Amino acid sequence: MSSELETAANPARLRRVVIEPLSRVEGHGKVSILLDSNDHVRQVRLHIVEFRGFEKFIQGRPYWEIPVMVQRLCGICPVSHHLAAAKALDQVVGADRLTPTADKIRRLMHYGQILQSHALHFFHLSSPDLLFGFDSDVARRNIVGVAAEYPDIAKQGVLLRRFGQEVISVTAGKRVHGTGAIPGGVNKSVTRAERDELLKDVYQIIAWCRAAVQLARRLHLSNAGLYNSFGAFRSSLMSLVAPDGGMDLYHGTLRARDNTGKIIFDKVDYSRYWDYLTEEVKPWSYMKFPYIRSLGADAGWYKVGPLARVQNCDYIPTPFAEAERREFVDFGGGQLVHATLAYHWARMIELLFAAESIKELLHDDDILGDELAVTGEYRERGVGVIEAPRGTLIHHYRVNEDGQAVRANLIVSTTHNNQAMNEAIRHVAKRYLNGRKLTEGLLNHIEVAIRAFDPCLSCATHALGKMPFHVELIDAGGQCIDTLIKSSHERCP
Amino acid sequence: MSLSPAAATGMAPVLLIGIGNPSRGDDAIGPLAIERLEALGLPATELLTDYQLQVEHALDLIGRRVVVFIDAAASGTVPFSFKPVIPAANSSAITHALSPAAVLETFQRVSEAPLPDAFILAVRGYVFELGATLTCTAAANLDAALQMLISRLSAAYGGETGYGN
Lengths: 493, 165
Fold this sequence. Notes:
The complex is a heterodimer of chains A (493) and B (165). With 493 residues, chain A is α+β, with helices and mostly antiparallel strands. Chain A has helices at residues 54-58, 66-69, 78-92, 100-132, 143-149, 151-172, 192-222, 224-229, 296-299, 306-312, 319-332, 342-362, 413-416, 418-433, 440-453, and strands at residues 15-21, 29-35, 41-48, 181-182, 185-186, 236-241, 253-257, 263-268, 277-280, 289-292, 302-303, 381-388, 391-399, 405-411, 469-474, 480-485, 490-492. Among the domains of chain A are: 11-49 and 417-492, no CATH class; 98-230 and 355-373, Cytochrome-c3 Hydrogenase, chain B, CATH 1.10.645.10. In chain A, helix 7 (192-222) packs antiparallel against helix 12. Chain A is globular, with a radius of gyration of 22 Å. With 165 residues, chain B is an alpha/beta fold. Chain B has a single domain (11-154), classed as 3-Layer(aba) Sandwich (Rossmann fold), CATH 3.40.50. Chain B starts with 13 loop residues before the first strand and ends with a helix. Chains A and B meet through helix 1, helix 4, helix 5, helix 6 and helix 15 of A and strand 3 and helix 3 of B.
C-alpha cells in the first residue's frame, strides 16, 4: 500500500519545496516536495520531530511523580498523558480494578479533555478552511474571518473549550498542571457544588455540539465530490473499544480492521501491545512508523483517531452521538469511509459523545464518593492506553524495586498516524500540485490534509521568538529561487 | 459561562499571565514569575499560568484594566523587554498555540467588553531542553524584569488598583 511518491528515483536532479513551520526549540513539522523540471511531483515526505529525551527526563524519578511530570511533554493534551501514565501505574501498584468513584472521575476528566481539544480543532484550526475554501483569500481564511462572518461559531468554540477546561479543573484540581489521577485512583472527588455548577451549562453544551455535528455533516455533504476524494486513501484502522464493542475513549481492548472493515484482531489486552504492533525506522524521518506485526510493514500500517474510532466501534453508548454515527455509517453505504476530510465529521460526532458522557457522569452520584484509591501487589511493569483526542496513546514504564522509573516507551497518536498522514499529503500533492505553479492556496491544500489528522508537534513550549510559516523553493543546485512567508505573503525573486 | 461585560463583575483589574513549561529550562520563566509574584500578595491582581496561550484565555481578559503576558524570549533584548501589544491575527498555520496579540484579537471578536491595556514582558532565556533547569543568567534577567514590572504597575495603576499602598 506504500505510495510510489515516498522515494524518488533520482532526487538530486529534482527541485525541492520545503514547507516548514520553524520552531525555536523542538517539535516541528516539515513537508518536503521534490518536483522535476516540468513541475511534476516526484517525492513527498512529512517529517515530524518526535518527543526527545523523555526517557532521560523520567529516569530515576519515583513512579508516583510520573502522572504529573508527563503533563509537561505536551501543552495541548497534558490530560491525556496524565491519564495514560496513571493507567500504566495502576498496574504497577496492583490496582487491577479502580473504585467506581475513581473510574468515573477519571472518565469525566478525560471527556472534558476530548471536548475542549475537539472544539479547538474544529472551531479554530479547521473551520476557516472548511467554511471559506482551501484556496480562498488567505487574509480571510483564519479565525478572525470566521468570527466576522460566523460570529456564533467563533463564540461557541471558545465557550465549549472553556467548559471542557472547567470539567478538567473540577476533576484534576487545576486548569493546568492538575494532579487528580494518581496510581491506583484519584486524589479528590467532586463536590455537589462543583457538580451543580457544571450541570447548569451542560445542556447548552450538548445543544452546541449537536449543531457542530450538523455543520460538519452539512459541509461534507454539500461538497461531497471534493470531501470524499481529497487526500483519500484506503488503510486499516485501530482503536480501543469497550468489551461489548461500544465506543469507549478511556478504557477497553484493542481492535483493528482492514481497509474493507474485516477484523484483523479484537479483544486484545493492551498490556502486551508489542505482540500485535511494532515499529519501522526509515532513514529520512525522526519519527517511527508503527504497523500491525502480522501484516508486515508494507501492508500493516493503519490510521487512528476519530475517523478510525467512529467506524471501529459497533455503537456509541449515548443517544444523540449514536444517531449521528448511524448517519455517518449510512453515508458510507456499507463501506468504510476513508476520506481524510471525514475526520472532521467523525471528530464532531465524538465531540457530541464527550458532551453527552459528561452529562451522564455528572448525574452519577459515584463521582461524589470518597473511596478514591486502591492498591494491590506491586509490579515492575505497567502499560496504560487511552484514546487521546488525536488517537491511541500508549505509555509503557519499567520501575525498579525501589519505585524508581528505569525505562519508558511512549507511542503517541501522531506516531500511529505517521504513514497515514504521509499517504494523505502524497495524494493531495499528486492531485493538486502536479504541473502547476505553486501558490499559497495550493500549498495550503497540503496543510488542510495534515490538519485533518491534527498532529501533535511536540508543542510543549512556545516561548516568544517563533518563526513564521515558511516555504522555500530550492533548485537542484541548492539555490533558493522562491520564498513564501505566510504571515506577510512576501515573495522574493 | 458568559462572554458579556457583565461576566466581569468582581474580576481583579490586573491580570498577570505567566506562559511556559516548568520542565524546559528557561521556558520556566513565565510560571516562575507567577510563583514569585504570588508570594508578594499583590492587591487587585489575579495571577494565571499556562503552558501556552489559547483561545479560552480571551475569556480571562474580560473586565480587566491591564493584562501582562510574561514569557521567555529566545532572542532579543537582555535582560528583558516590556512592550505594549495590540490585537493581531495569528500568523501560524498549524500550531496549537496563540500569540498574545492573537488572544487579544480573539477577545475583541468574541466579547463586547473593553479591551484592557496589554503588555508583553519578554524575559531573555537561553536553554529550553526538556529536563533542563533554569540558567543563572535567566534567573538574573527574571529578577530585573519583576522589579521593573512591580514599579511600572505601581506607577501607572496604583491609584485604581491599590498598588503601592
